[in-house]
Specification:
This protein is of the alpha/beta class. Helices cover 24% and strands 32% of the residues. The protein has 2 domains: 145 residues, Glucose Oxidase, domain 1 (3-Layer(bba) Sandwich), CATH 3.50.30; 220 residues, Rossmann fold (3-Layer(aba) Sandwich).
Length: 376
């Protein structure tokens, strides 16, 4: 089934749908990971985006529930060079095409993904429309121009959990009452040395797994949570998760974090890093084409070590806007953008990349240990 990809600047790419008919809009971006496509599909940070994979063969190891990082697929469409329907993997429970169809996600193959990547690198990420139904190029370009972009978009509210819950042995446990007494009676509290209150802006399950492995009880709150509600569960630390959209548009979370500063140790990842920076008085800006993939080099300025990291973000913190009380701890070696900050006086730090490694390298897991040490 023929599909057209129309960008807002008038560029057209042609492909073939392997999931059936459909038409969607979103910001067209590329990801350089060679594996981990199911984790990418289920990462809430991709809400509102059309993801193009630079690795040419996608689908060859199928899909499995074990690799899901949230309860659904969040991106708008999935673009690949060649879709492999016949998978080979002892863990797999199905093929990628059926998985996308089940979730109502458009998948397009036989696309010149190298040309898309080169165009985005030169012209920048931009709005696009993919359609199998409307094949009029001028019509699609107009639709792309008229579609909503990510700037000023609070998408965290769309992907956050609806009710608070506790991560209990790898399962979501919703409670009628989130109180210290009720939380202390749960199985997760019996082995837990610390309780972490988590602001869910679009978190990934592996963040919860890694905290649990380090003896932490994870209490997850919607992004709309108020500071006093969060503190009422008597947490030892506060975590701000990753998520989609423009960080400057998530005003309610920024205000909540401002009220939490100095009251508990705080750790932020990706959107959480940007929100913490904004709460401390910094500014953010949109990158030309963002950082997305499992092979991004980052330098830890305190040790001089280089980490290979997994990343997925289209906005960055403006280093010049950081107040004197905040120091840059990590930088991206591709473009020298800010990849980590730490407050000099308060127990608060964050990183722009994804140390939870799902998918991606394990180089940065030490940050979870650092946060546990900070709580102690």
């Amino acid at each position: 089934m023929k599909a057209l990809i129309a960008l807002e600047d008038g560029r057209i790419f042609e492909g073939r749908s392997f999931t059936g008919p459909g038409e969607v809009s979103g910001e067209l971006v590329f990801n350089t990971s060679m594996t981990g496509y199911q984790e990418i599909l289920t990462d809430p940070s991709y809400k509102g985006q059309i993801v193009t994979m630079t690795y040419p063969l996608i689908g060859n190891y199928g899909v499995t529930p074990e690799d899901e990082e949230s309860l659904g697929i969040h991106l708008s469409a999935f673009v690949v060079r060649e879709y492999e329907e016949d998978y080979s993997n002892w863990r797999a429970t199905g093929d990628l095409g059926s998985y996308l169809r089940k979730h109502g996600i458009l998948g397009v193959e036989q696309v010149d993904t190298r040309a898309i990547t080169r165009h985005i690198r030169l012209a920048g990420a931009m709005k696009a429309v993919i359609s199998t139904e409307d094949l009029d190029e001028a019509s699609l370009v107009k639709k792309a121009k008229d579609s909503p972009g990510l700037v000023d978009a609070d998408l965290a509210t769309l992907v956050t959990c609806q009710k608070p819950y506790v991560w209990e042995r790898g399962k979501i446990l919703e409670l009628e009452e989130i109180s210290p007494d009720r939380l202390s009676k749960l199985e997760s509290a019996q082995q837990a040395a610390f309780r972490i209150a988590i602001i869910d802006c679009g978190l990934k399950f592996n963040q919860l797994r890694l905290f649990s492995q380090r003896g932490c009880q994870c209490v997850v709150f919607p992004a709309t949570v108020q500071a006093d509600q969060l503190l009422a569960c008597k947490p030892d630390g506060i975590f701000i998760s990753n998520g989609p959209g423009d960080p400057a548009a998530v005003h309610h979370v920024i205000e909540t974090v401002k009220r939490l500063l100095g009251k508990r140790p705080i750790f932020g990842i990706c959107l959480g890093h940007q929100i913490l920076s904004l709460a401390l008085g910094a500014k953010t800006y949109k990158l030309k084409f963002g950082h997305r993939g499992g092979n991004q080099p980052v330098k830890d300025l305190s040790t001089g070590k280089i980490e290979i990291t997994a990343q997925n973000h289209g906005f960055a913190v403006d280093e010049a806007s950081l107040p004197p009380s905040v120091e840059v701890t990590h930088i991206n070696l591709n473009d020298n953008t800010v990849e980590g900050i730490s407050h000099k006086d308060m127990p608060a730090f964050s990183v722009q990349y994804h140390p939870e490694n799902a998918p991606g390298p394990h180089d940065s897991e030490y940050l979870f240990d650092r946060f546990v040490k900070l709580m102690s």
